[in-house]
Amino acid sequence: MAGSIKDRVAVAGMGCTRFGERWDASVDDLIVEAAYEAFEDAGIGPEDIQAAWVGTATGGTGMTISEPLRLQYIPITRVENACATASDAFRNASYAVAAGVYDIVLAIGCDKYKDSGLSGLTDGSIPGPGHGLMAAAQGPPPASFAMLATTYFDHYGLSYEEGKHMIGRVSWKSHANGQRHKKAHFQREVTMDAILNAPMVAWPLGLYDCCGVSDGAAAAIITTPEIAKNLRKGKEPPMFAKALQIAMAPNDGNLNTKFDYMHVEATVRAGEAAYKEAGITNPREQISMAEVHDCFSITEAVTMEDLRFSERGKVQRDIEDGFFDLDGGLPVQPDGGLKCFGHPIGASGIRMLYEMYKQLQGKADDMLNPGQPSRQIKNPKLGLTHNLGGGPAGCAIFVGIVGLEGV
Amino acid sequence: MAGIKSYGAYIPYYRMPRSVISAAWGRGGGRGELAIAGYDEDAVSMSVSAGIDCLKGTDPQAVDAVYLATTTPPYLERLGSNIVSNALDFRRDVRNADFGNSLRAGVSALMAAVDAVNAGSLGNILVTASDLRMGTPGGEHEQALGDGAAAFLVGNDAVAVEIEGSVTYSDDLADYWRMDGDEFIRSWEDRFGRDAGYSQIPAEVVKKLMEKLNLTPQDISKACIAGANARAQGGLARRMGFAPEQVQDPLLDNVGNTGVAQPLMMLISALEDAKPGERFLMVSWGTGCDAVVLKITDQIEKIKDRRAIKRHLAIKGTLDNYGKYMRWRDIVPTQVRARGGISMSAEWRERKLGLALYGVKCRNCGTVQLYMRGSSMRAHVCLECQAKDNFEPYRFSDKTGKVVTFSHDFLGGGINPPMTRAVVNFEGGGRGLFDLVDRDPEECKVGMDVEMTFRMTRTADNAKSYFWKIKPVRE
Predict the structure, then answer these.
(1) Residues A228, A220: Cα–Cα separation, whole Å
(2) I need a labelling partner for B253 at 20 to 30 A (CA). Which of A209, A372, B281, B338 fits?
(3) Three-class SS of residue B27?
(4) Which DSSP letter does residue A365 get?
(5) Do residues A229 and A244 both lie within one domain?
């Protein structure tokens, strides 16, 4: 490997809209809201942006942002990598700064589903030709992720009740976290009883095992460490990139009989590459917090093993022990995750980084719902974000590690 | 001499008790059950299923034509027999034709095949007959009609059933009809069709055939007489001079009237117990009448391991919900919105790989693999050794497999939720993700045995497309 991104770029400002069914907002409204929060946070204006990367899963060119933000004839690249879209926009923007081509760039992710008239993801929002010929090769996401649970339960001998409780506990934790956050899509605690008895969506996944489909946008101002420190003088510190990795699976899960359908190999590969890039040997000990791709509860569960947060086959114990709770050994989804914060496909990756950024700066409680206990994690040093774009069998995986300077 | 070399049949997995229909309309009673095609089945897919049964042990490349008979073609302008031919992996230079517009079309197709083989034009012809007719909801015919398919391989070597002779009357007697656009069958006053037609004309045709062949009713072991109604059929058989034990059961109680397929399915039912030297009579009815005398040869004993009628009758699950039936048949509007369309150009490009379900075997490392992507099924790079374009074709549609994992999708389940999706490892190698149909969700297990079944996958832009699904192996 020729080089590493570690500490070569920093985030000087970030913004994120409230996620949810934003009947009140167009995608342009969301873009402007997120971008201007980031501009103001960094103390810059749109005229300071030299280039931009926009992530959206629902189409459009770079004009998706040049038009609402009135960006003046700068280079803008539209990025699409399914649920890893925003993270990949962030990664490409970071490389451009690290290459020394630009000083200050914007990475922004956005998507709006609630004008389509359809529940769930609209066709064309997920890459893949829509021809009817091999319709069997495609299918809605819940069932494809549910198949991870079927195999995991079967292989590790979990009864339906044990397995269902394990994944239910994942969502219970995310609701407990999401209810504290002002910008989350679902700000409501739910009981284990409600989770376990909810209507089935794709067996064995019930309603609360599935994340919402949301509208939203999130933005980051990426710059050099020097400029970032300058811009944030007298304010909270900037956030440094430690590792930005993508691994693209060749859909082995649906083609190759060697794949066990109990883990996501691309997460393992991207995770190990990120740990190497960031110099991390024991992620369970060294990572302070994580936002992972919990599109479905079982996805988060197996991701804990794929990222070596839990030993292979042992995640049930960590989940049930509360190891990933906000006050646990390694808080996961402190903002509620996709499950509760919401999931506008093209925005989620930068939303995850936004949570890492606020936690690293000690500002997590700026967005605390009134009357709720603090959601600030104590002295976080390194945060990990993870996206899974596609299905467990074949996907784009992003694993990013961010942290404070010198960590 | 041309004749039948092999036979096969298909009866859809779901059976709806007639009492379910009666109850739906606030009435009591209803004896027996009807075979109901799944929401993803039609005359073309059922023809493929019967064809698979018929062609066990036959090289698909040896088939020279498909004659498909149905009065319920999914397309008015697109050859159903071509779709069958692609699905069953026949050669491109096959001479396919569809027969329709009469309940006699199945027998017409069979006789046309026999003539073509006798004329020396074609060697082996697959004849399929399949119908999925509907009576008006709540009306008198609804409880009479069932779905099913029959298939015969016609050729002139190793003939198991010889055609001794036939007589056809072509009468424009419309007791039942459908106009273009009619979903449900229409009929004239039933006493007209029965008294002036069905109970008279077939007896005249059979009498003429018996005289022609110098046979008496006692020379016939089984009379396979099509009929919409068991009592009328019994009366007709008596008039023809047959004793009750000579009359083949018309399958009305347990399948229903399968239209063009009915006389052929009855013949297959008789063939399952046939002995060399026996003579069978087959009689069709509908805008005229055909009578055919068939003689069984000793080759009949070589046709083994067919599900045909007997085993298909035993492979069943109950459809106990009339609302589901209405949804399956598109009788009531549904709120399911189609996502994604159909590409005729992609279907053409991928016809071999997609419809015959071909994967590849790597010539370099031997790995068998099924490449299935939204727009293409053409593998270029080996998933194991990365060798490029060094494959031989490998057919998956005739393979069985074991379920690796599955899920029941209640929300995205289309018109028949839950939709069961499953990943399957094939015997002999290769893996794929398919819809699992004709299953009870409760019976689904990791490791269960499945086989391939040809189904409709999508209807959009007023076109239908077909692909393979999997179903539990049931003997």
Answers:
(1) 12
(2) B281
(3) coil
(4) G
(5) no
The answer to the question of residue A2 being in a domain is no
Query: How far away is chain B from the Cα of A23, in angstroms, using its nearest Cα?
Result: 22
Residue A199: asked if its preceding bond is cis (omega within 30°), the reply is: no
Query: Is B26 part of any domain?
Result: yes
**Minimum-distance CB partner of A254 among B340, B433, B465:** B433
Based on the residue annotation, tell me whether A83 is a catalytic residue of this protein: yes
Contact B431 A120 (CB under 8 A): no
Q: How many helices (H) and strands (E) does chain B have?
A: 11, 22
Strands A395-403 and A239-248: antiparallel
Amino acid at A228: A
CA of A108 vs chain B CAs: smallest distance (Å): 28
Nearest residue to B351 via CA among A135, A134, A128: A134
Residue of A119, A122, A134, A213 best to disrupt the B interface, most CBs of B under 10 A = A134
CATH number at residue B142: 3.40.47.10
Residues A100 and A182 grouped into a single domain? no
Whole domain around residue A19: which residue ranges?
10-115+215-238
pLDDT tens, N- to C-terminus, chain B (475 residues):
999 999 999 999 999 999 999 999 999 888 999 999 999 999 999 999 999 999 999 999 999 999 999 999 999 999 999 999 999 999 999 999 999 999 999 999 999 999 999 999 999 999 999 999 999 999 989 999 999 999 999 999 999 999 999 999 999 999 999 999 999 999 999 899 999 999 999 999 999 999 999 999 999 999 999 999 999 999 999 999 999 999 999 999 999 999 999 999 999 999 999 999 999 999 999 999 999 999 999 999 999 999 999 999 999 999 999 999 999 998 988 766 555 566 778 778 888 888 899 999 999 999 999 998 766 788 999 999 999 999 999 999 999 999 999 999 998 777 888 999 999 999 999 999 999 999 999 999 999 999 999 998 866 666 788 889 999 999 8
Regarding whether A332 and A227 lie in a shared domain, the answer is: no
Is A131 annotated as catalytic?
Answer: no
Residue B388 structural domain: 348-472
Q: Please indicate, yes or no, if residue B343 is contained in any of the structural domains.
A: no
Examine the domain organization and report whether B58 and B22 are in the same domain. yes
CATH number at residue A290: 3.40.47.10
Do A196 and A60 share a structural domain?
no
Same structural domain, B250 and B368: no
Residue A299: count other Cβ atoms within 10 Å of its Cβ.
29
What are the CB-based long-range contacts (under 8 Å, 24+) for B381-386? Answer: B383/A250, B383/A252, B383/A255, B383/A256, B384/A256
Is residue A296 included in any domain, yes or no?
A: yes
Task: Please report, as a single letter, which amino acid is at residue B282.
Answer: M
Using an 8 Å CB-CB cutoff, list residues of chain A that contact chain B.
118, 120, 122-123, 128-140, 142-144, 146-151, 154, 199-205, 250-257, 259, 261, 393
Choose the final residue of a domain: B297, B328, B359. Answer: B328
Q: Which residues of A touch B441 (CB under 8 A)?
A: 203
